[in-house]
Design goal:
The protein is mostly helical. The protein contains 22 helices and nine strands. Helix 16 runs parallel beside helix 18. The longest helix has 28 residues.
Length: 620
């Protein structure tokens, strides 16, 4: 199906409003409050488009567009919607705050590794990187929303509620940023260890010896190793930076699944410390997870986006924390981008599926995670044509292997990517009770998001056409997976609708997949909002046509007396002049449009010449 971000978002909003609002009052349902991740995802389905796309703004009732208001009819009219959102957001902030500090519980997203065991309440309340990252995005969206809406309402009770919500949101944002700093980790390993040998095999791909891999690793990451050792201090154990200085050791960096065991507290000002409460002790094994690293990398850029800077959403202390997170964001992208493209021949990323080094888990999902980080890096540094072309092919192969663009075979293992999804053991969780796991079932939505991001990045017509076609195929696949009846109709996720071999849909709807699809539509809006790719060849042809059109138009004006302004001939001359002027304005940015306009001018001028009986011949 064609990507129509506005129409698709309106459909999603209509389904969310129908599901979540009952007579204008928000209904969390049975799952509400059981996971800060799921609740944040649900709110972001509304708030993220509303703060990222001007046409979807809800913070100023006077500018709310009619089709947007119609889609949210269940939430009230344009003047009621922002007030209702303030109530819902206030409820979220209160629901996910403990006695002393904001909480970031994984809740029902956590599951026991042994299905016969049950997780304790303490385990379900453990914070998780998904919640930290989602909270950064949600809090910034909320602060921006409140900043505008506060100037549009005069009700004292509403203003007081806005001020309380703003204070709670700022505290949650700070706590989330501190938690992200304490979840970042660098895992240093000996080459001779199991993990070291696994990383060596991954990078060498059977073509390089262990010694060659170590030498190339030393050369490639010498500068990055120095930056981490000297600049990354907040929230990172000093022993790690000391070990990192040994160039004969390998390392990985990124985010663990939660606060790292032994991670020192981040020093903050006394007033801030009072707002965010006591920083909890970490339990996660100091090992980067590809999935949680991607999640963190998705949320951190919101801290230094243009909108955040223009609206001045961060305090001075939050800005310092944001700078520290930005450094880790850049380091992590550079590291995994280099790992993905390590060596001179075939990239490790092109060897699908990717195998993790510590747990030796193998899946196309991990290939997608590495590709996602590579996309982040390509956007940051502007990709070369070679990097982009090879990454496009990786995306196409992942879509094939995930059976999105190819047929499913009997007992196909690829079905596991979608249902039940890929399961991660959460190392360190056993310290509190039964070992916990985390399952990712958003392969298709994540693939669509990265494909659209690459499409927006590409300035190569062939690559962009391939990516746009792939994105349309993935969206068609996802759109068929919307729930067709019962709770959550119009939302996600019904895998059985696409793959009849899977069990019929069970349980509640997936806010994870629904939120990812919403992100995809926001990314697609940004794609279509940018200028089209400029073709040098078409630009040259357009200039030639404009030149000929201008010359013949001048000649036409000499051949006849000036027509009456309101006569048909006069209107035709005015139209030709307007089209010619517009063609000149567009020739640099939209040469195809300029070409078409100039061609139309030539056609109309020839019609006028033939009407006078002029064949265009200059005589012999």
């Amino acid at each position: 199906m064609q990507i129509k971000p506005r129409q698709n978002l309106l459909e999603v909003w209509q389904a969310i409003a129908r599901h979540s609002f009952d007579g204008g009052e928000w209904d969390w349902g049975e799952s509400g409050g059981r996971s800060s991740v799921a609740d944040a995802e649900r709110l972001l389905c509304l708030l993220y488009p509303a703060t990222e796309i001007t046409a979807f703004r809800l913070d100023d009732p006077d500018t709310t567009q009619r089709d947007v208001e119609r889609s949210l009819r269940s939430a009230g009219d344009s003047s009621e919607i922002p007030g209702n959102l303030v109530k819902v957001l206030s409820d979220f902030m209160e629901q996910h705050r403990g006695e002393e500090s904001p909480t970031f519980a994984g809740g029902h997203y956590f599951a026991p590794e042994d299905p016969d065991q049950e997780l304790s309440k303490e385990q379900r309340e453990v914070g998780v990187v998904d919640s930290y990252s989602m909270s950064v995005t949600l809090c910034l969206a909320t602060l921006g929303f409140l900043k505008v809406y506060r100037g549009k309402t005069q009700r004292a009770s509403t203003l007081a509620r806005i001020d309380r919500l703003r204070e709670a949101t700022s505290a949650r944002l700070t706590a989330a940023m501190v938690s992200l700093l304490r979840s970042f980790t660098v895992n240093v390993v000996d080459v001779s260890s199991d993990q070291g040998r696994a990383l060596t095999r991954l990078l060498g791909q059977g073509r390089l010896s262990e010694r060659q891999v170590l030498h190339r690793f030393q050369e490639r990451f010498k500068a990055l190793r120095a930056v981490i050792s000297e600049s990354v201090t907040l929230g990172l154990d000093s022993d790690v930076t000391d070990e990192l200085r040994n160039e004969n050791r390998l390392f990985e960096c990124g985010w663990a699944w939660s606060l790292v065991k032994g991670a020192p507290e981040v020093e903050v000002e006394p007033q801030t410390a009072e707002g965010i409460g006591k920083q909890p002790a970490g339990i996660a094994h100091p090992t980067p997870y590809l999935y949680f690293t991607v999640v963190a990398l998705d949320g951190i850029p919101d801290l230094f986006s243009e909108r955040t800077l223009v609206l001045g959403l961060l305090t001075a202390e939050q800005q310092k924390l944001a700078d520290a997170l930005r450094l880790r964001w850049e380091i992590t992208q550079q590291y995994w981008s280099a790992i993905a493209r390590f060596g001179d021949g075939t990239w490790p990323l092109e060897e699908i599926p990717w195998r993790t080094t510590l747990q030796q888990l193998e899946s196309e999902y991990f290939s997608l995670c590495v590709a996602s980080i590579l996309v982040h890096d390509l956007v940051r540094r502007r990709a070369t044509d070679d990097d982009l072309t090879r990454t496009v092919r990786v995306m196409e192969r992942l879509a094939e292997r995930g059976r999105i663009t190819s047929g499913m075979t009997r007992d196909d293992p690829a079905i596991g990517l979608h249902d039940p999804g890929v399961t991660l053991p959460l190392l360190g969780s056993e310290a509190l009770g039964p070992a916990m796991t985390w399952t990712m079932a958003d392969f298709s939505a994540q693939l669509l998001k990265r494909t659209i991001q690459l499409c927006a990045l590409s300035r190569n017509i062939t690559s962009q056409d391939r990516l746009r076609g792939l994105a349309e195929d993935i969206l068609d696949h996802l759109w068929q997976r919307r729930i067709g009846e019962g709770v959550g109709v119009g939302l996600w996720d019904d895998v059985h609708a696409v793959y009849p071999e899977t069990p019929a849909r069970r349980g509640t709807l997936s806010w994870s997949v629904t939120e990812r699809v919403t992100e995809c539509m926001v990314a697609a809006h940004a794609l279509y909002d940018q200028p089209p790719i400029r073709s040098a060849e078409l630009s040259q042809l357009a200039r030639a046509l404009i030149s000929e059109s201008a010359h013949l138009f001048g000649k036409e004006q000499m051949e006849q007396a000036a027509p009456a302004p309101k006569s048909p001939q006069g209107e035709e001359i005015k139209g030709i002049e307007a089209d010619l002027r517009r063609a000149r304005l567009l020739v640099d940015e939209q040469p195809g449009t300029a070409y078409a306009l100039a061609l139309g001018v030539l056609t109309r001028l020839d019609t006028l010449a033939r009407a006078r009986g002029d064949s265009g011949s200059q005589g012999v």
